[in-house]
Design a protein that fits this description.
The chain is 73% helix and 0% strand. It is built from 14 helices and no strands. The protein is mainly α and 255 residues long.
Length: 255
């Protein structure tokens, strides 16, 4: 699994002649950094990187609390049509994303949001997966904790914000990881809904970078772009892997 990633890093420090040499070279000779210099020279990579980071961070910041509140409501409260509404959320997870693109595009056009940050961020804020994940976590939470909080005078919202949400840190971090990585790697929707270079995200920029050299594809430059694209995802996962692993373990342990 890790071999293609290691190979990508190695290739990013090679010339094109080294990349296609046979037998393949495992160690770059000579070891060059011109590919990375070329990337920053030919494209405003810094701008694309900031755009991707801005969209991914804001989408994560908004989706996590919305999904947590909805998940807690579905798990710990009683209201009319609760099961039916939750079923609707589950149905949205079964619909391929490609099916939603056309109606979502028309909606963005009617709102005059084409080629704006709103079109990149708002559709990713709400999702069935996040609600389902948080609902399953809160459903397994001990009811004795809530009963003790009610005896102390806490209402429904105080129990959520002061007790349930802090206890759900592993699930919250897991949802944040999935949301950030999915948004960061998103390609199809940003490609469709953006036109100007000022809000282009990094995955879309890489495809444009490849298309700008039709006669000769600079594979070293493209690989360097891919390495840059992978860095935030790796850092985010390393920062949250402790909570992510705890969440997976908690899901596999029964009292």
């Amino acid at each position: 699994m890790i071999a293609p990633f290691i190979w990508m890093i190695i290739v990013s420090f090679m010339t094109d002649s080294q990349i296609f040499s046979f037998p393949p070279k495992i160690i770059p000779d000579p070891f060059i950094v011109d590919n990375y210099k070329s990337v920053f020279t030919k494209l405003p990579i810094t701008r694309f990187f900031i755009n991707s980071l801005f969209v991914a961070v804001l989408t994560t910041i908004f989706q996590v609390p919305f999904s947590s509140m909805a998940g807690y409501a579905f798990a710990r409260s009683t209201f009319k049509y609760k099961d039916f509404l939750f079923f609707i959320f589950l149905v949205t997870m079964m619909i391929p994303p490609q099916v939603n693109i056309i109606p979502l595009f028309f909606l963005m056009r009617e709102l005059h949001w084409i080629d704006t940050y709103q079109a990149l961020i708002l559709p990713g804020i709400f999702g069935g997966f996040g609600v389902f994940l948080m609902r399953q976590w809160f459903k397994n939470m001990s009811s004795e904790i809530e009963d003790a909080a009610r005896i102390d005078g806490c209402n429904f919202f105080e129990i959520f914000f002061k007790i349930a949400l802090p206890l759900s840190t592993p699930a919250v971090v897991t949802l944040a990881l999935f949301t950030f990585i999915t948004t960061w790697n998103s390609f199809m929707w940003p490609l469709i809904v953006t036109n100007s270079e000022s809000i282009t995200t990094l995955p879309v920029a890489i495809s444009q970078f490849k298309g700008s050299f039709r006669e000769i594809i600079m594979w070293g430059d493209l690989t360097a772009c891919s390495v840059i694209l992978s860095i935030p995802v790796i850092l985010i996962f390393l920062a949250g892997k402790k909570y992510f692993i705890n969440d997976m373990l908690a899901g596999g342990i029964k009292e």
